[in-house]
Amino acid sequence: MNKIIFYFLVGSLTLISSVFFIIGTNIYFNEVSSANWPKTDAVIKSSKVNMLPGKRGITYCPEWTYSFTVGQQTFISNRTAFGIVTCHKTQKNAEKELDKHPVGSKILTIYDPNDPSKAALNMTKSTFFPFEMIFIGLLCFGSGLFIIKTVYSTNKPVEFK
């Protein structure tokens, strides 16, 4: 096996595994910790539909900007949820979602008591997505270990060209 290819494969798999594992665990721990966060009223300041291009065409994601007060300090956020945000296949459906919370209306929000700037409108529980990310990370890491084991456990000496 070519030495450059070997190091590229192992390095790439290690990097990919790290990225997926970190993202997956971050999403999971944000969701778990947010379950016990305090709630407060927020006021919708603005709303819009974001168009996101993807492999299957454009998806339309509603976004609200809202403000809320904790103690004497006012915070502004546009985070809808930790984890997966619901998007729609049509702009009309996304606009219907926006109509549920018009500008000026009150809505309940959750916030991190240690850092109220971290807030969300929903406590979305992604039952699959974070674990999928963690699984892919561990799979890539295991693949890297398998490549190393395979190359170094052969009976004949490894000869890099």
> What gap, in angstroms, lies between the N and C termini?
7 Å
Helical residue percent band: 40-55%
Strand adjacency order, main sheet: 3-2-1-4-5
Query: How many beta-strand elements?
Result: 5
Low-confidence stretches: none
Mean pLDDT: 80
CATH class of the largest domain: Mainly Beta
Number of H/I helices:
3
Q: Which secondary-structure class do the elements indicate?
A: alpha+beta
The third-level CATH topology of the largest domain is OB fold (Dihydrolipoamide Acetyltransferase, E2P)
Describe this structure in words.
There is one protein chain. The chain is of the alpha+beta class. Helix content is 40%, strand content 30%. A five-stranded antiparallel β-sheet has the order 3-2-1-4-5. Helix 1 (3-34) packs antiparallel against helix 3 (129-152).
Main attributes of the structure:
about 160 residues; alpha+beta; OB fold (Dihydrolipoamide Acetyltransferase, E2P); 2 domains; five-stranded antiparallel β-sheet; 5 strands; about 40% helix; about 30% strand
